[in-house]
Design a protein that fits this description.
heterodimer; A: 307 residues; alpha/beta; TIM Barrel; 10 helices; B: 151 residues; alpha+beta; Porin; 8-stranded antiparallel beta barrel; 48% strand
Chain lengths: 307, 151
C-alpha cells in the first residue's frame, strides 16, 4: 500500500520535474542578417541581389569580398570564380575540378569583370531564386549602392584563404581603406574565416569590431569531420569559445548553428563575447535559435518567409 | 577529490549502471532536447555524449560517473523502499566545475533520479567560474539489480 502511494506521487513529481526541464529560455532578440545579400531571392552576392536587399529594407546586409591580382576588392564568396554559379562571358560552363579553378589572386579585376557572368545558373538549394546573369560586382559598386542607405548595418565578410588569396594585410588595407574613404555613417563589423585578416584590420584601427567565423573549414577537408572534432573538444572542455576569441584576438564569434551549444553560447555571451549564428534557412530554425541570446542570425531568407 | 579518486583507484571498481539520461551535466534535457525538431543530429550526438557509465567504488555508496560530457563523484544516502538522496561533484576532465544534488529511487535494475545540476562555465581551456547555471535534471539508469541495504 505504502509502495503504491509512493509510486503515484513519483509519477507526478517526475512529470512536473520533466516539464521544468527545458524552461531555461532567456529570450534573445537577434538581428536578422541578409546572407550574401539574401541569396534565397537572388543569386548570392549579385548586384541585383544586393540592390533588391537594400530596396527591401533588410536591416543587415552580409556580403563577401575577395581581392584580385591587382588588389581590387570584388564581391564573391570563394577565392576562385565559383563554377556552380558563374560561366564564361559567352555562357560556357566552367570546369568543376580543382585543376579548373580560376583564382582571383591570379586575374585582374578587369579580367574578372569581362571574363565571367554569375547568377544565371539554377542553384539546387534555392529553387525559388530569380536568376540574373551579371558581371562580378566590385566593392566600389556595392559602396555606391549602400550610400543611399545609411541605416543598413553592414557585415563585411573578408574571404581570405591562405595561399589561395592575396596577403591578409593587403586584404585588410584595400577593403577597409576603400570603405573608410566613403565616410559612410553605417554601423558595421568585419568577419573572416581565419583570424589573420581580422588581426590586420585591428592593426589599422583597433576600434573596428571583428568577428571570427569559427571553426575554419579548410579547403579539401571534410566539414563533417571538422565539426565533429570541434564538438568533442568543446564538450570535453579542451576548447572554449571565450578562449578561442581571446587567442585569435577578435571581438566576436560567428558560428555555424550546427556546432553551436546553447549553454556555452550563453556563458560566452554573459562573459561579454557577442555571437552570431549562420546560416539558418528554415522558419523553424529561425524561431528556435531566435530564443538564444545571440547578437544575430544569418539567413538567406531575411523577409521571414524561409521554407 | 584527488584523495577520493586515489582511494577508488587503489581497489577495483564495480559496474553499477548506465545512465541513459544522466543528471550531470544535465544540459541535454534542458538545452539540447528542446532543439531536437530543428537540430536532430546535434541532439542525438549530445545524447550520446552525456550517457554515463556509473561505477560503484570500494567506498560504500560512492559512485564514479564517466561520460564524454562529465565525470562525477556522487555519494548516495539510502533511505527506504529504494528511495534515497545523493550529492556529488561534477568535473570536466577532472576539473571541478559544479555539483549535482537530488533524490533517487532504485527498483530492480532501474534507477530514477530527480535533482539539480549546479554547473559553472569552467573548462580547462578557460578556467572561469564567473558563469553559473542551476538546472533541473532527471536521471534514468539501468544496470545491476538493486539490493536493499541489510538491516
Amino acid at each position: 500500500m505504502v509502495g503504491h502511494r509512493y509510486h503515484g506521487y513519483g509519477h507526478t513529481v517526475f512529470l512536473l520535474w520533466f516539464l521544468a526541464c527545458g524552461l531555461v529560455d532567456a529570450e534573445g532578440e537577434p538581428r536578422i542578417e541578409a546572407h550574401r545579400c539574401a541569396a534565397g531571392y537572388y543569386p548570392e552576392n549579385s548586384a541585383t541581389g544586393c540592390a533588391k536587399a537594400l530596396e527591401a529594407g533588410f536591416g543587415t546586409l552580409e556580403f563577401d569580398l575577395v581581392l584580385t591580382r591587382d588588389d581590387v576588392a570584388v564581391i564573391h564568396h570563394d577565392p576562385f570564380v565559383n563554377p556552380e554559379i558563374c560561366t564564361l562571358a559567352d555562357g560556357t560552363r566552367l570546369g568543376e575540378e580543382e585543376a579548373d579553378r580560376v583564382y582571383f589572386k591570379d586575374i585582374t579585376a578587369a579580367e574578372a569583370r569581362a571574363g565571367y557572368l554569375c547568377g544565371g545558373i539554377e542553384v539546387e538549394d534555392f529553387p525559388t531564386q530569380a536568376l540574373v546573369d551579371e558581371p562580378i560586382m566590385t566593392w566600389a559598386e556595392l559602396l555606391d549602392m549602400i550610400e543611399g542607405h545609411p541605416d543598413v548595418y553592414l557585415h563585411i565578410d573578408i574571404k581570405w584563404e591562405g595561399d589561395l588569396s592575396r596577403p591578409p594585410d593587403t586584404y585588410a588595407r584595400v577593403v577597409m581603406e576603400e570603405f573608410w574613404a566613403r565616410e559612410l555613417p553605417n554601423d558595421y563589423y568585419v568577419s573572416a574565416e581565419y583570424p589573420e585578416p581580422l588581426q590586420e584590420v585591428e592593426k589599422l584601427d583597433s576600434s573596428v569590431v571583428t568577428s571570427w567565423s569559427w571553426p575554419s573549414f579548410p579547403d579539401g577537408e571534410s566539414t563533417t569531420l571538422v565539426a565533429i572534432g570541434h564538438e568533442l573538444q568543446t564538450t570535453l572542455g579542451t576548447e572554449d569559445l571565450v578562449q578561442l576569441a581571446n587567442d585569435a584576438k577578435v571581438d566576436e564569434l560567428n558560428i555555424p548553428w550546427q556546432v553551436a551549444d546553447r549553454r556555452r553560447v550563453e556563458d560566452a555571451v554573459a562573459s561579454g563575447l557577442p555571437i552570431q549564428l549562420w546560416t539558418l534557412n528554415t522558419a523553424a530554425g529561425l524561431e528556435a535559435f531566435g530564443k538564444w541570446p545571440v547578437e544575430a542570425l544569418i539567413t538567406d531568407y531575411p523577409a521571414g518567409d524561409a521554407p | 577529490m584527488i584523495l577520493l579518486v586515489a582511494i577508488a583507484l587503489a581497489q577495483p571498481f564495480r559496474f553499477d549502471r548506465v545512465d541513459i539520461l544522466a543528471e550531470d551535466p544535465g544540459t541535454w534535457i534542458n538545452y539540447d532536447l528542446p532543439q531536437a525538431p530543428v537540430a536532430f543530429t546535434q541532439t542525438a550526438v549530445r545524447l550520446v555524449e552525456q550517457v554515463s557509465v556509473q561505477w560503484q567504488l570500494p567506498v560504500t555508496n560512492l559512485y564514479l560517473g564517466t561520460s564524454i560530457a562529465s565525470q562525477s563523484l556522487t555519494y548516495e544516502l539510502p533511505w527506504k523502499h529504494g528511495l534515497g538522496v545523493h550529492g556529488g561533484l561534477q568535473t570536466s576532465l577532472l576539473l571541478p566545475r559544479g555539483a549535482v544534488l537530488g533524490a533517487h529511487w532504485r527498483t530492480g535494475r532501474v534507477r530514477l533520479g530527480l535533482g539539480a545540476s549546479v554547473i559553472s562555465s569552467a573548462t580547462w581551456a578557460h578556467v572561469d567560474y564567473s558563469q553559473w547555471h542551476v538546472l533541473p535534471t532527471i536521471g534514468v539508469g539501468v544496470g545491476r539489480k538493486y539490493e536493499a541495504p541489510a538491516g
